[in-house]
Design goal:
mainly alpha, two-stranded antiparallel ribbon, about 475 residues
């Protein structure tokens, strides 16, 4: 007996409009870029930002509405829209930050913005996944685009090495995730996440389900960059160009959170008493390893990579709470961290020149004497990452610590407090170098790109503004999981 799937009508595809516009824009840019010569690549850049702006406006105004598409494989709900808005914002910020940097180094080719658009489409599908098939489709679209972005500087051996490591380890992680999905499918007989959720209570294959869940958690941990699945992170951050490192450290983390929530709560939610302890263990290991390794770094990009591992530990703390308030706290943390990470890499971009990368901590010596404005912006960013009140980073940490306490994990919350204190040391070291050390080497001055300066200023000072008015964002995140 054979079955056939009826093609959906145009009216049924309306909730997919933002994704269709984004993918259509990416394909259109592929063609348009062929007719733009090297001196006018700014048009490719402008059009790519314009596509993201249109998609952002569609999401913010609710164009297309909410609903299920493709027999429930794609789900557009409030949680998906909140995450998509943050993802599109971070992708657009990447392109704005990256233009002057890539143009100076003759790296701005037409495929770069197109890859960012396709990666963004993959992330949007990932956070709207209603099926294991859609999870994997979105994940691989994001992963393949990310591999190519890391290797964009083809004449740089470090970039090539980083991309190769990323591909090998990323393929391994995808295999773990796919194997876990296959075990869950074998135990439940369905690929739909809601059907998996409903089938678990009556299933006799509990051991198979737990094994599959463990493999899926391992795959999610790699995509987030949680220890001990973090091996790729420092090399990719250091080897990739600064704008690509900015991109990888922001939007994909939001998408990985969305994937974790869809798979764990939407799919294997009845097993929460088991998988939340897996997340708690990953959180604890990430907090310890991330902070200890960051203390030993002299390269600021590697330091930020290991600090990312620590921040993922805090994010997992919220997820391990296993209830809507914990998920809201974790999403709040993911959004806050994305804004902070974008600003930190934005400072590196603003201080870099063709032939010189401001990526060593010693490169920041005496920055206050040369550029007080950039030094003060970096102070705000580092203080927010360290969790100093009243900046945004303080409230994000407080939210996930409360989620851990409400989930009955006092030990994890205490470890988080200790980790925050230890983590403050390596952020303060950067500030000490900028404000109190004598300048070393060639003069370090900010880029003269006005757009870059304005965006960096808004990004960094936004951490202070959002720290003083954080509650609307938290309420926004809470509504996503009501």
């Amino acid at each position: 007996m054979t079955t056939s799937l009826a093609m959906p009508s145009a009216a049924e595809l309306v909730p997919l409009l933002p994704e269709l516009v984004l993918i259509g824009g990416a394909f259109a840019l592929l063609i348009v870029d062929l007719f733009i010569n090297a001196r006018h690549k700014v048009w490719t850049h402008f059009l790519s930002v314009l596509v993201l702006a249109v998609v952002l406006a569609m999401l913010a105004t609710g164009v297309g509405g909410q609903g299920e598409v493709l027999s429930g494989m794609f789900v557009r709900d409030t949680a998906a829209d909140v995450m998509k808005i943050a993802i599109v914002l971070m992708s657009g910020l990447t392109l704005i930050y990256g233009w002057s940097y890539l143009r100076e180094r003759n790296l701005y080719q037409g495929e770069l913005p197109v890859l960012v658009l396709f990666a963004t489409a993959g992330m949007m599908m990932l956070v709207s996944a209603g099926s294991l098939v859609m999870v994997y489709l979105g994940l691989e679209l994001l992963a393949l685009s990310s591999y190519a972005l890391v290797a964009a500087d083809r004449d740089n051996p470090r970039a090539t090495e980083a991309a190769m490591k990323y591909i090998v380890l990323g393929s391994l992680a995808s295999g773990l995730l796919l194997y876990g999905m296959s075990l869950v499918y074998g135990a439940t007989g369905t690929l739909q996440l809601d059907a998996i959720h409903a089938a678990i209570d009556g299933s006799d294959e509990r051991m198979l389900l737990l094994t599959g869940t463990a493999f899926m958690v391992a795959g999610v941990a790699f995509k987030l960059g949680a220890a001990p699945f973090h091996m790729w992170l420092p090399d990719v951050y250091q080897g990739a160009t600064a704008p690509v490192a900015l991109f990888i450290s922001t939007a994909p983390k939001l998408a990985a959170f969305g994937m974790a929530w869809r798979l764990l709560e939407g799919g294997v939610g009845p097993l929460a008493e088991e998988w939340k302890w897996l997340l708690a263990g990953l959180s604890a290991v990430s907090l310890v390893i991330g902070n200890l390794m960051a203390l030993a770094q002299t390269n600021i990009k590697r330091m930020l990579a290991y600090s990312t591992v620590s921040h993922i530990g805090f994010l997992l703390m919220g997820l391990a709470g296993g209830d809507p308030s914990g998920y809201a706290a974790a999403l709040f943390y993911a959004i806050g961290y994305a804004i902070m990470s974008a600003a930190s890499f934005g400072v590196i971009i603003a201080l870099s020149r063709n032939g010189f990368e401001a990526e060593n901590i010693d490169d920041f010596k005496g920055l206050y004497a040369r550029s007080p404005a950039i030094a003060w912006l970096m102070l705000v960013v580092m203080a927010s990452l360290a969790g100093v009140p009243p900046l945004l980073g303080f409230w994000t940490k407080l939210a996930v610590l409360r989620a851990a306490l409400s989930g009955g994990m006092l030990w994890l919350a205490l470890l988080g407090v200790i980790a925050a204190v230890v983590g403050a040391f390596y952020y303060l070291r950067v500030l000490k170098v900028m404000f109190f050390d004598e300048p070393a080497g060639a003069p370090l001055a900010p880029h003269n790109d006005r757009v870059l300066g304005v965006v960096l200023g808004v990004n960094a000072l936004g951490l202070l503004a959002l720290g003083l008015a954080w509650n609307p964002i938290m309420v926004w995140c809470q509504r996503a999981f009501m």
